[in-house]
Amino acid sequence: MLDYETLKLIWWVLVGALLMGFAITDGMDMGVGSLLPFVARNDTERRMAINTVGPHWDGNQVWLVTAGGALFAAWPMVYAAAFSGFYMAMLLVLFALFFRPVGFDYRSKIDNPTWRNAWDWGLFAGGAIPALIFGVAFGNLLQGVPFHLDELLRSHYQGSLLTALLPLLNPFALLAGVISLLMLTVHGALWLQLRAGEPVADRARTMAMVLAPTVAVLFALAGIWLWVSGDGYRIVSEPAHGSLPNPLAKEVVRAAHAWFDIYGRLPITLLAPLLGLAGPVLVSYLAKWKRPGLAFTVNALAISGIIGTAGLSLFPFILPSSLDPRSSLTVWDATSSHLTLMVMFVAVAVLLPVVLAYTVWCYAHMWGRVTAQEIEHRSHSAY
């Protein structure tokens, strides 16, 4: 059996991998939705775009459900505290996501321009709003979240429920949200360039060429902003990593540039921000050279680099507290029991390869470019 400290670290990696898997797969669907009103100019073109993701979007969204389940099972204190503090933001994401299943299933049921146009904007909202809010959440993590733990380890947030959303929409968090939105929009554009027929593919190519370098510039700006104005968190003393969880047993201080500590200790971690900076620039050129498959792969690595940079910068913190740094939840003191982590690890080791194999099989058997001729031939299809 793996020791407790190792399992804590493994689950930090696994939750990060699930978030990356969600961004790469379901982020692609969200990106297509965000682009729908801009790259498709009539009903046939919009159906072309929708049909590139229609057979896969619900399977891709399982990554989000799985990440939420893993967060609940591996880090129950983080789940409880985060979902309380980000309650209004989570509701906004949930309401936006409602438009996706209904939009995909009902948009083409009625041959009416007003009906279909309304659902097109619904699919846009279902793609753009969650992508923006997820980035805003990461931006707030890097600034600290206004909560503290009492002596019974219950979390308490500053402010009321109704006003909880406004403080989250601060300038740095909005910058992080725009980065998230644009990087997923680029991913969707590359998917359309790869799978849609003309002229949708060509318009998506133009969007990818323009937006991808913008992601790199904004990502660099966020790093500079964090270096110049953002204090990070640093653990001064703590119990052994393999001990039973107790967040209040450690000592934490705020310190300038603390979010950059890991890159000095482990230079190999610099690969993550380098991927986040160089990847989008390379993607722009690959899109221009009409290599969408390679561009899509490189952009998946860039997304992993950007998410990985946020995770590595925070490590070992998961949910820093701006009110009481000692209450911050970390990889070492916010986990489930040793037995729980071990049972879940065995389940993941058995089931994850099955899920990945099935996903690959689905994409392989539904591959092909969606053309206008095909859409007109299947005028009564689901999407």
Describe this structure in words.
A two-stranded antiparallel sheet has the order 1-2. Strands 3-4 form a two-stranded antiparallel sheet. Strands 5-6 form a two-stranded antiparallel ribbon. α1 packs parallel to α13, α3 (57-74) packs across α4 and α11 (271-288) packs antiparallel against α12. With 383 residues, the chain is mainly alpha-helical. A hairpin with a 5-residue loop joins β1 (147-149) and β2. It contains 14 helices and six strands.
Span between termini: 49 Å
Instruction: Provide the gyration radius in Å.
Output: 21 Å
Order of strands, main sheet, comes to 1-2
Oligomer: single chain
**Overall residue-averaged pLDDT value:** 89
Stretches where pLDDT falls below 50 for ≥5 residues?
none
- Structure class: mainly alpha
What is the H-and-E element order? HHHHHHEEHHHEEHHHEEHH
Please tell me the total number of domains: 1
Q: What percentage of residues falls in helices of 4 or more residues?
A: 55-70%
Topology:
Layout: H1 4-39, H2 43-53, H3 57-74, H4 76-85, H5 87-106, H6 113-141, E1 147-149, E2 155-157, H7 165-168, H8 171-195, H9 200-229, E3 231-237, E4 251-256, H10 261-265, H11 271-288, H12 292-314, E5 317-319, E6 329-330, H13 338-365, H14 372-377
Antiparallel strand pairs: 1-2, 3-4, 5-6
Helix pairs in contact: 1-2, 1-3, 1-6, 1-8, 1-12, 1-13, 3-4, 5-6, 6-8, 8-9, 8-12, 9-11, 11-12
